[in-house]
Amino acid sequence: MLAEVFARTEFRDPELAGVTITVTEVRISPDLKHATAFVSDLGKGDVEKLLPALKRVAPYLRTQLSHTLRLRIAPEIHFQPDTALDYAMEVDALLRRPEVQRDLDEDEED
Hints:
The protein is an alpha+beta fold. The chain has a single domain (2-82), classed as K homology (KH) domain (GMP Synthetase, Chain A, domain 3, 2-Layer Sandwich), CATH 3.30.300. Helix content is 45%, strand content 20%. It has 4 helices and 3 strands; from the N terminus they run H-E-E-H-E-H-H. It has a 3-stranded mixed sheet with strand order 1-2-3, with helices on one face. Helix 2 links the parallel strand 2 and strand 3. The protein starts with a helix and ends with a helix. The mean pLDDT is 84.
């Protein structure tokens, strides 16, 4: 739902103008009062610089979510950068190193 709000909303915050925010995961606390949204700036990689702007628009997003989900009280939204793709790319690069490939090839021969 949060991704849908991002997709249809144009923010007045100049730091978010023209930026495509991707919500990769949302974790909600057991008491349903807090939601942590893991986000990335598709194509750019450095979403850290957008976190202050996302914090500024969080109350607006919370209101939009409460209307969309028809909730009386929506959770507070906190943003964290999603580093899963960066980590996967780092592991892939390590696996492609010649010395690792050599070790993998030796294991296949045994």
